[in-house]
Amino acid sequence: MSEENRTPILEVTDLGIDFGGLTAVNNLDLTIYENETVGLIGPNGAGKTTVFNLLTKVYEPTRGEIWLCGENTHKMTTVQVNKAGIARTFQNIRLFMNLSVLDNVKTGMHNEHSYSVADAILRLPKYKKEEAEIDEKARELLKIFGLEDKAEYIAGSLPYGEQRRLEIARALATSPKLLLLDEPAAGMNPQETEELMDMIRKIRDQFHIAILLIEHDMKLVMGICERITVLNYGAMLATGTPEEIQANPQVIKAYLGE
Amino acid sequence: MKEKLAQMFQSKNRSRTLSFGLVIIAYIVLEVLLLTGNLSSLFTSLLVPVCCYIVAAIGLNLNVGISGELNLGQGGFMSVGAFVAVCVSGVLSYSIPSPIIRLIASILCGAIAAGVIGALIGIPVLKLQGDYLAIVTLAFGQIIKSIINNLYIGYDKNGFQMSFVENKLALAEGGKALLSGPMGATGTDRIATFTFGVILVLLSLLIVYNLMYSRNGRAIMAARDNRIAAESVGINVANTKMLAFVTSAMLAGAAGALYALNYATLAPSKFDFNLSILILVYVVLGGLGNMTGTIIATTVLVLLPELLRSLQDYRMLIYAIILIVIMLVTNNEFLKEKFSKLRLGKKGAMK
């Protein structure tokens, strides 16, 4: 397989977390290579979002290790994980609702620039130069997501589908190596989902990043993912190509019952 | 030039232009009235205090409105700034005759002292989520008042003398008691001027606006709107909240310093819990995150009790009723809609 020659962005071994007596995720192994789209699927309550929260250190894993670009993340905080290259979106949209669309994206570039508070308060040349760069890059990103006309709108006033797109734009603004998308197509109609698929492919190739996505829309998952991992009751049920997963009797059983 | 002028009135810069314009116009009008002798002595005596309250309120609005953390100890930070400034001014009066340099140095020291104490409070508290900052600043305001109430500081040619609870100062000839317990500061040189007060207001506006429209400002507002999302894009929430809180404390310190240097005597009890709440009322009534509103609300609410003085005992009753009416009116959906129509071209861009 050609995969063996590619560099892994993310390597997860034996990951698990317990909440008191409840084991939410157990024995998860996951490897994601450069420029690859991987799907994470499973019935409701299987622990998919919990995996995202473990990867981004919102939760501290009880067991197992997460290696990001060859670096162990066990001592990192959410902020450091983002700086190291993981960006995410949320199942329930979490935008900065009172900021403008443009400012939401600019917020994502917080760590890319280094001008200090003094530079900002005194409006020194460094502030002006870097703010101009931020502005230009943020508007470019908005253009990719078709939001350039709404740059000055407050984020909370956008319709649902555009809020989802803005959240992806904000995540991309942090220049990640790995993008985690939590149900990006939730609440979208078939045509919007179609557009979203094209967009995900486009950003993967244009930004040359890996994508891990949680999604219930099987058409989308089977359409763009190169590999799929199935979770059930927090444990890994199967992993493989879309064809293998579709044919796997255990997966069918988990989704449809006996 | 024309481009620059157009830029000043763009949606994002409009509130900034409005605030600065308002302060400068008010200053010119008041100066003219002062010079022509058309301002009553009551108003004249309120000019510097109004500037102080505005600076403290702008600072508090940065913390409450922009950063979203409740602070019930703004009076305490003013108190720190005030009494540090009194001491600095008293000591410098021997070596620096120029009042303006002494004023600047005193205010700077007051602001820095308040900022340092703000940082000490913020380091443990701002790591927590919830209303802890409100609780701790509330306690801080009370504690600092009690401390200064029992503090005696004197200065003579041998240096500083300090005692706590009892007055044990034994000052040499030519020495000066800077703080004397519950009496507070006495015999302070009244070096504060209205012009400098206005400069301080403009400076604090400049600091707050320039901070708001920078990466740090965006991070502060992002952390307010959604803490989890802010962390997910790499923003250190505790640090950004700290920046807002310390800046707010420093502005309060500067305000307190200017206030103290406007009076010959100043008791520590002046900076009590009531004052902290009063400044919070200015901020809430002026609008969270709205600096122009804060300036107007502060001016009106400082002057109102004085204007109502002729009503004697009924004056606080009427003051309270006016406050309630303003709150009801400004939260009225119908009026809000009317007002939003006035702001054409904003496209709902900024709050």
Task: Summarize the structure in words.
The complex is a heterodimer of chains A (258) and B (351). Chain A is of the alpha/beta class. Chain A is built from ten helices and ten strands. A six-stranded mixed sheet of chain A has the order 6-7-8-3-9-10, with helices on both faces. In chain A, strands 2-1-4-5 form a four-stranded antiparallel sheet, covered by helices on one side. In chain A, helix 3 (101-108) crosses helix 5, helix 3 packs parallel to helix 6 (160-173) and helix 5 crosses helix 6. Chain A is globular and about 65 Å long. The mean pLDDT of chain A is 91. In chain B, a hairpin with a 2-residue loop joins strand 1 (151-156) and strand 2. Chain B has a single domain (2-342), classed as ABC transporter involved in vitamin B12 uptake, BtuC. Chain B has helices at 2-8, 11-35, 41-66, 74-95, 99-125, 132-149, 194-212, 215-225, 227-232, 237-260, 273-286, 291-307, 315-330, 333-342, and strands at residues 151-156, 159-164, 176-180. Residues 344-351 of chain B have low confidence and may be disordered. The two termini of chain B are 28 Å apart. The longest helix of chain B is centred in the N-terminal third of the chain and has 27 residues, at 99-125. The interface between A and B is large, with 44 and 32 residues.
